[in-house]
Amino acid sequence: MPTYTVHAPPPKKGETTSAPERFKFVRDGFHFWAFVCAPLWLLVHRLWLALTIYVVAYALLGVGLAFAGASANIQLLVGVVIALLMGFEVSSIRRWSLSRRGWRQLGFVVAEDVEMAEQRFYMEWAKRPTVAPDVPPAPSEPIYTTPMRRGSPTGNDVIGLFPEPGSSR
User: Fold this and answer.
1) d(Cα 18, Cα 164) in Å, to the nearest integer?
2) Quick one: which of 16, 20, 117, 136 could link to 4 by a disulfide (CB 3.0–4.6 Å)?
3) Is 94 helix (H, G, I), strand (E, B) or coil?
4) How many domains does the chain have?
5) What is the helix (H) or strand (E) element at residue 144, kind and residue range?
6) pLDDT tens digits, residue range 156-167?
7) Triad 4, 31, 52: Cα angle to 5°
8) Rounded CA gap, 43 and 39, in Å?
9) Would 83 be classed as within a structural domain?
10) For 73-101, what is each residue's pLDDT tens digit?
11) Do residues 36 and 62 touch, judged by C-beta distance below 8 A?
């Protein structure tokens, strides 16, 4: 069953929180159309930086393989591997792009499709408390103490896993 991550945009000017209508749901998993035509998929989802990196890296790799004298079969195999990689990783690229633009991830939802994911998420979102829970005050003193040595060191002090200093293993 597909998993969706939920992302909230940064609030607009004059808002304290972003409107739930603007949340984006990003499906995790293999994207067939990104496998078939990654540049078009990146264009449709407006991932300009990822598209630029993809085109430059693909061109450099193609020129490098041609310069190295790789056969057409090897070049085709490299192209298929890159297409598979894009098919599996475009959702991560999309999440990275959203986080770069200041979006924060709110959670994830497991659902059959995006409509079911939205229903499940907003049902739980409506149940959340509107008032922030009381945060306990920070302790004024540290909750730990530093170990203190009692007495001066002796020749029988052992550090490590050996039972007695100087004994055989």
Assistant:
1) 64
2) 117
3) helix
4) 1
5) none
6) 666 666 566 566
7) 105
8) 6
9) yes
10) 999 999 999 999 999 999 999 999 999 99
11) no
Supply the mean pLDDT for the chain.
84
Contacts of residue 93, defined as CB under 8 A and 6 or more positions apart, other chains included, come to 42, 47, 50
Place of tokens 């057409």: 72
Report the distance separating Cα 88 and Cα 96, nearest Å: 14
Quickly list H helices, the chain: 32-36, 38-44, 48-68, 72-100, 114-127
Residue 167 forms part of a structural domain: no
Token readout for 131 is: 């008032």
Residues 6+ apart with CB under 8 A from 88: 29, 30
Distance (Å, whole) CA 94 – CA 4:
12
Does residue 157 lie in a domain region? no
| 144 CA to centre of own chain | 34
Q: Give Cα 21 to chain centroid, integer Å.
A: 23
Measure the CA–CA gap between 61 and 78, rounded to whole angstroms: 9
> Quick check: is 58 in a domain?
yes
Which range among 60-64, 130-134, 146-150 shows the weakest confidence by mean pLDDT?
130-134
Inter-residue contact 66 to 75 (CB < 8 Å): yes
The answer to whether residue 169 scores a pLDDT higher than 60 is no
